Amino acid sequence: MILRLLLALNFFPSIQVTENKILVKQLPRLVVYNNEVNLSCKYTYNLFSKEFRASLYKGVDSAVEVCVVNGNYSHQPQFYSSTGFDCDGKLGNETVTFYLRNLFVNQTDIYFCKIEVMYPPPYIGNEKSNGTIIHVKEKHLCPDELFPDSSKPFWALVVVGAVLVFYSLLVTVALCAYWIKSKSSRILQSDYMNMTPREAGPTRRHYQPYAPARDFAAYRS
C-alpha cells in the first residue's frame, strides 16, 4: 500500500510537467522564390474555449517578434506585426499558419513558432521547437520586368516627332501655296499694266534740221 502511494506521488509531477507544455512541429526548411511564404505550426493541445497567444519569432535567440495573434476560437482574431513585417494568418484544427509577404533576402533566418495558453490558469507554453529555416531567394527579373515603362518614353518621342513633322509639312505647304498665289497675282497685275490704253496726245512732228540752201549758180559764175 505504501509502495503504491509513493509511486502515485512520483507519477503526478511528471504528468503535470507534461500537461504544462505544448509540443509544436514545424517544417525544417522553406525556400521562398516569390517573396511570400506560408509557415504552418502544428501543436498538440486543445485550445478550444481558451484564451491563447500564437506568435512567430525570428533568429536563433528569438529576438524579433515577426507576427502575433491573440484571442480564442469564438471569433476570428487578427494577425499583426509590430516590427514591420507584412503578415497575416489563419487558425485551423491544431494548426496556426502564418502568411509572410514582401520578404527580403536579408530576412533569411530561422523562425520559431510559440503557442501560449493565457487563460484560464495555469499558464501553459510550448517547448521550443527546432524551428524552420526560411531561405529567401533573390528574385531575378527579366529585362522587360526591370524596365517595364522603358517603351513609353520611346513612343512618346515618336508621337512628338510625328506631330512636329506634320506641323512642319503643313507650314511648308501653306508657305508654298501663299508664294504661288502671290506670284500669280504679280503676273496678272503686270499684264494689266501692259494692256492699259495710253491717252492720245499731240503727234510729234519730226523736223529736219535747218540748213541754208546752197546757190550752185553762184559757184558756176
Automatic annotation (TrEMBL):
GO terms for cellular component: plasma membrane. Pfam families: V-set_2 (PF15910). It is a single-pass type I membrane protein. Its main location: membrane. It comes from the Eukaryota. The chain crosses the membrane at residues 154-180. Keywords: Cell membrane, Disulfide bond, Glycoprotein, Immunoglobulin domain, Membrane, Phosphoprotein, Receptor, Signal, Transmembrane, Transmembrane helix. InterPro entries: CD28 (IPR008093), CTLA4/CD28 (IPR040216), Ig-like_dom_sf (IPR036179), Ig-like_fold (IPR013783), Ig_V-set (IPR013106). It is found in: Cell membrane. Disulfide bonds join 41-113, 67-87. GO terms for biological process: immune response; positive regulation of interleukin-2 production; positive regulation of mitotic nuclear division; positive regulation of T cell proliferation. Homodimer; disulfide-linked. Interacts with DUSP14. Binds to CD80/B7-1 and CD86/B7-2/B70. Interacts with GRB2. Interacts with PIK3R1. Interacts with PRKCQ. Receptor that plays a role in T-cell activation, proliferation, survival and the maintenance of immune homeostasis. Functions not only as an amplifier of TCR signals but delivers unique signals that control intracellular biochemical events that alter the gene expression program of T-cells. Stimulation upon engagement of its cognate ligands CD80 or CD86 increases proliferation and expression of various cytokines in particular IL2 production in both CD4(+) and CD8(+) T-cell subsets. This is T-cell-specific surface glycoprotein CD28. It comes from Canis lupus familiaris. The gene is CD28.
